[in-house]
Each structure stands twice: as C-alpha cells, then as structure tokens.
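Subject: Interface between my chains keeps coming out wrong

I've been trying for a while to get a sensible model of this assembly. When I model each chain on its own everything looks fine, but I need the whole thing in one frame so I can look at the contacts. Pasting all components below, labels as-is. Any help appreciated, I'm running out of ideas.
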Amino acid sequence: MNLEPGELEDLRSRLGREPSDTEARIVAAEWSEHCSYKSSREHLSILPRTGPGVVGGPGLDSGALDVGDGWVVTAHIESHNHPSAVEPYGGAATGVGGVIRDILSAGTRPIAILDGLRFGDPSGGHARWLFRSAVSGIADYGNCIGVPTIGGEVEFDASYDGYALVDVAAIGFGRRSSLIRNRASAGDAVLLLGGPTGRDGIGGSQFASESLDAQDRSAVQIPDPFAEKMLIEAVIEARRAGLIRAMKDLGGGGLSCAISETADALGVGIEADVSRVHLRGELEPWEVMVSESQERMLLLAAPGDVPRIESICGRLGVACSQIGRASDGGQMVIRRGDEVISDMPARVVANAPPQEHAASPPGPAPDPGSRPRADHSAALLRMLGSPNMSSRAWVYGQYDHEVGIRTVVRPGMDASALRLDNGRYLAVSMDAAPKHCNIDPRAGAAGCLEEACRNVVCAGARPAAMLDHLQFGDPRDGRVFWSFKESVAGMAWYARSAGIPCIGGKVSLYNETPSGPIKPTPVALVLGLADRPFRQGSAADGDALFVIGATREEMGGSEYMEQVHGTADGACPAVDPGESAANMDAVLALQAAGLARAVHDCSKGGIAAALAELCIAGRTGCRAEPGSFPGDVPEDAALFSESHSRYLVVCPGSRADAAEAELRRRGVRHSRAGVFGGGAIRAGGVDLSVDKARAAWLGALGGLVHG
Amino acid sequence: MRVAVVVFPGSNCDRDMHHVLSEFGMSPEYRWHEDGIPGGTDAVVLPGGFSYADRLRAGAIASHSPVMDDVRRLADDGVPVLGVCNGFQILAEAGLLPGALVSNDEPGFMCRWTEVVVGSTGTPFTSRFSGGDVLGIPVANGEGRYHADERTVRELEDAGRIVFRYAGDLNGSAGSIAGVCSEGGNVVGMMPHPERAAEPDVCPPGAAPMAPLFESLRAAAAA
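Reply #2:
Try treating it as a single job with all components included. I did that and got this:
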C-alpha cells in the first residue's frame, strides 16, 4: 500500500516538499494501476470514441448511446478479479454493486446486468467453489436490487487456476436530458450518500494492482444490496428533482479517488472533513480516505438544495453527510476537525505519472503438425457436455432475468434483448476468446469483438456501440504488455472497420496466478439496436439448413483441438472485415424478410456444435453435408474450425428457395447444407442422437457443481 | 380506477406493476409504506421484491409496517388486494392469507417460466379466466414453497380458495399451491409474477397468458 520509490520522488518534486504520511497514502490509492491507468491510458487512444449516436461532451464520464426519441442507453463494464479470487461471493457481489453505481452516476437507471466469469480447470474443487460462490454472489446482489441479469459467459481454463476473472457489465436507460453533465462551482456542498465507511476494502485498489500473493481478505469489500437498492432510489429521486450538480461513485481508491478526480475534472478545489463522514467502527483519517466500503456516492449540490436531498435520503433510510464544499483554486484539502491532514493540488493527486513498459513479441508459434483422425461423433458429444460448451441454464436460472419486464430475448440465446420505452429494442452480448488471444492477441481480440457483433445480429439487431475490457497479467512482463497492445490494436481495427464506436471500457492488469499470467483476456461488450427483435423459433422437420460464411483452416485455440487433440497450437481464426459486414447484412435481411426461423452464431465447437444446439432446441435431427459448407477444408475443420463471420440459418422448407435467391443476390458465401428431421445429428462422420446430445449438454454444468 | 401500489423499502417490482396497471387502463399510484393508503382507493397491490432485504424471513418485517393497518382495513371492506411474490409473503406474514412461504425444496433462487392451472374464478383477479385454464407465467424466488398443514390445504380446496396451482411439482409446494385467496375472495396472494406475463412482447410464444388477471381487476372496479 505504498508508492513506488520513483513515484514518491515524483510526488515530492510536484509538491515541492515531503508529503505527510496521510498524503502519501491518499496518493498511493489514487496512483494505483486500478485507478490511474498509468500503464494503459496512452495506448487506449486508438479506440474510436465518436460515431453516430454517441453522446459525449464536457461533464460526461463516458459515452452514452442515443437510441432515439430523446432516450439514451449507457453502459459500463468492470472486473472484480482480485477480490473474487480470495472471497468469490463478496467479490462478485460488490462487482455488481460498483458497476451499477457507474450507471447511476451518468444519471440513468440500471436496467440490466451481464457477467463474464472465468475460472481454472473445473476438475479442481477450488475452481468449482469459486464458480459456485461467484454465481451466488451475483444472484443475491442483482436479484435483491431488482436489476435483471440477462447474459454473460462462463469459461474454464487452466490459465486461471487458483484465480478468477469476474467481469460485470451494466446497462442504463434514461432521458438524454437527464444525463448528469457534471459541473461545480466554489461553494457547492459535497455530500457522501449511502453506506457507512468502514475498515473493509482498505487498500483494495492497490491490492488489485499487484499480483495476488497475499490473500488479503480485509481488502475485499462487504456487499449490502439492500443499501444499494435504497441508494439507487435516493439518487434517482434527487436527480429527477434537479438537485445534483455532479456525482461520482466511490469505487477503487474510495474517497481519495472520488474527491481528487471530481475536483480535477471539474476545475475546482474540494475541502472535506473526515470527521463528518458517517462511519462503521473507529477509523484512522487515512483509512477513511482509502476505505472502499461499498454502496456510497459522492454528490455535489447547490448549498440551498442540501435540505431537500437530506429529506429524500431521510425518507428512504439512506445516510447522508455533508463532508465538505467545493472551493476556488483546485486544492484538495482534507481536515480532521480543524486540523489539516492533507493539502495537495487535486491535479497532482488525480494524475499519476504514466508508466512505460517494454513490449516484446513472442517467438514463432510452434507448428501444430498434422492432426490424427478422430471419431467425430464422440468428439461432438464430449464437447457438448464439457464445462465450456454446455447449457448455461444452471447459472442464469439463479438470476432474476425477468424483473423490469423488458427482457424480450432471454439468456441462453446468442444475445439477449430488452425492449426500450420508445418501442425499439436493445440487444447485448459479452464475449471473449482467451484461447485465440493466447495464440494471436490482435486477431483474437478483433475476433471476440466480431463474435459479440454476430451474437447481436442473431437477435435481429445492428451493432451500434462497443465497450472493451482488457485483462492481462503483470505489464512489466514484456510478453504480457505486448499482448495488451496487440489486443487494443485488434479491437480498434475491427471497431473502425465496422464503424462501431467505443463508449467505455476498463483495464485490469496484474492478473497473475501462482503459475504465471492469465491468458490475454480482452472482453467485448456490444450493444445493438433493432426496431423489431428477431424472435428465434425452433427448427422443425423439413426446414432447410443454410451455412453463411466461409470456413477456414483455423483450428488453433479451438475447443476441438484442445478437448480432442490436447493441443492449442495452430493458426487462430482471423476476421475479414468485408466478409464480416456482408454476412451480417445478409442475416439481418433474411430475418427482416421473414425467411429465417432461427439464426445461430458459429463459435466454440464450430458448425458441428452450433448445429447440435439448433437440433437440441428444436428436438429434431438434421442431415447436413460438411463437403458443401463454404470453404475448402478437410472434414474435421469444416465441422469444428471456429472461423469468424459464420451463421447457421434455419429456413422453413417453403421459404428456402427465396432465402437462397436472396443470399445469391447478395453474393455472400453460403450453402444450402442440409435438412432438419429425424432423431439424429448427421454430418459427415458425425452421427449422434439428439436425445443423447441434449442430455449431455443440459446436465453438465449443474453436475459439475453438485456432482 | 385507482390502484395503490404499495412500496416498501426493497420492493423492486413496483414499477413493473405500475406499468402494467397503466397499460390495462387503470390509474396506479405509488404509496410509500409510511404514507398510508388514501380513501377512494379501488384496489391495492403489494408488489414483489426484497422488502427489508428478506431479513428475518421474507415479508416478516414489512408485515409490521404502518401501511398494513390500512391494507387490513381495506381487505375487511372487501376491496381487492393482490400480493405478488414478496407481496404474497407479506400478506401471509400479516395473517391476511393462510399458510407460509418457505425455502424451495431445492434451495436457492429460481427464475424460470412455468405453468399454472387456474382454480377459483370467484376472485376479482380471476373472473376472466376459466377454471382449469393452463397458463404460462414466470416465477422468481428463493422462498416460494407454499406450506400449510394438510387440514388447511383440504379446507382451502373445499372452500374453493386455491386460485392457482402449479401444473407440475415446481418447488415442493403443499397441494402444488401457487396462489390462494381469503375467505371473502377479495385478497389474493400468488408467487408467480402475472405482471411479467401480461404483454405479448415479453412472453416467449408471443402470447399474454396473464392479461385476463388485469382485465378481471378492471372489470371488478367497473362493476
């Protein structure tokens, strides 16, 4: 919980004096990697930040997406990896709470949560405990605050052994005119709303900025979803009454971060008195400043409006302390009563000196060699019943995904969709591909962004905005930092080529396990808009199967290679932006023309797995011809390669000719590859009973936890 | 028609209920639990959520809120009162409905669509259904298993006070009970969420299986 020697030197020279102990602790919290982005900030500028529909401008912490008719959607993504690795229930729950308060800070009401969970090899009891506990933490928190958890991911990989990645995204919705455009002037009251400040989460941001060697549970925050729910209502009521001039969530770095960043961003000073902060237990002044106790918000309000805010809080049972006021001059002054304990320019506190790291590319990838023959039926069955590919119903069945009555496309599909108040629909998908990124982070990151876009398209929506969440190991390791830079480049490249603006993101570094860094895990969250969502039907006997998009020899990092051949080597899938755009347009056109009964993205497990999932959902078989799939590859690649930009489309038999004509007219690579019916999935060497596939697919995840 | 939607600290389906009541042409009003229910109220709804974070037992603390005196008085006067999910738990804790809601037989929160069979159509919330109708509706709870002793269940059955039953065994509920009513029939509690199944846009097959519940309430007030 200390500044690095070079940073202490830097602080000394910027202050022109020796910082006091309290000052050094305040700065150490804010200059942690977690709060300051000191290693990553300059590299993120290549992401496209503007585009049609992006609402930006002064006073907005992050972008919002204009969805028409005066409404906006906001989104945030965060991880709570270090805390979740030592205390998965509380870590995951407080991860939800934190990202919800970011939505609130924007002036919008949270309407959905998504969570991406990653754990080590599930044959280990520890990974299963982390998984079970993190799911419980998210369920108990999200369910209680009445925000539906509508999607996400679960993945297991040995590179997360002894560790956990818990990514939480939240979606907000509100009037464009209600967005909080933060502003402040001298004399404004500074209020702290919400839960009492206690000795939990002390040093949490620094804890999250170091490798996890000390299992420091006291650095983990304690969740109280009830306090969050009441805080949500109090803030929304105060915002509606026009009483909030500026607002900031208290997350990493606690008051140190919230006060310094608010003052610095708004060009004012802030004077605050720690003895006015409502506490849980007795705390030292520096502890008050760095505690990361949850369910707290910092508000700036005109002095005359304070009694009305206090009255709203009083009625809802939310504690509210006026801890200070804004001042001229840009100084962040912290007192305990009359005693000044810290007096530094907010600009100094809020701006850590950037940290430079060397990036070193790895050597040439090993040659995968030739693949031995395998039993494709057995391979498919094994994959469908594997922890990474089986049904996620065990997870989302514990989340209230209906509250809010906006959920139109429910979890379990490629993307979920929500109705908005203007009659339009928002589809969302969160995706990562660490196995691909481990081979080629640039291609892998572009690919996971394209996958999230494909998923949104499956729900009938056109991708409109993205958020990135970049998770890597220790940036001082040249290989790690290279993979970070490559991932940002890959995401920025695809986002620009597809014209999708980035409206937010987060970086999480120092994700190290006892045996080394995690696989590079950039996560993409994509928001899509539709005037009418695509409601998936089930494949029925006589329906035609279309494959859209070319399959390539891209078996590296595929589930098939890892699960069946025990190797991850080889070229990983790479996106062709022209093909990506044309295929998306074609799918959206088939949906809009009523030619598609169901649409499914091809990703993990390739076309074989996607086809099996369509058959399981429709409780019908299919006879497909892998030789006809677009692309000139051996049968195992046709079935299991995870090439991007591919979709399976189910068409009613009577509409198949029309669908074929449309695809031909558009010139996209496609084939009419099979007919649904019977009780088995048959494709080249695959001959698998649907009932058997269904049983393996449905039961695996619950079996993993209860088994 | 004025419908009071009672808001307790931790209610989280109040806005959903308000939305659906409006959609069905009624005039819902939020009533904060400390503020009481004004005269001229035609019906009362206790929505779902986690009042007081389910501390002690789900619904236990809210059942002692000052607003419950008003709810009791209106219930005695024959005013329609509906409790959904946590609202049902509160009505049961308050003794306005028989039985108790306890942990599901497979512990943990369960969110899924299920099917209920309509029992009594003699309540202000079910007149537009036909007895025996099988309808889709979502449940979302951790303490949704209806518990009452065998004699009580039999009496409820004989008196036609079982309003909804699960079509199968969902969570171990006694008599597969999903919803019951008071002796007078005007107080109804149910664990599944009718407000989530009242608009075709949000229902899986594009139906609106629970629309008749809100049509029944609107008709009851007009009568």
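Reply #3:
Confirming on my end. Chain B has a mean pLDDT of 96.
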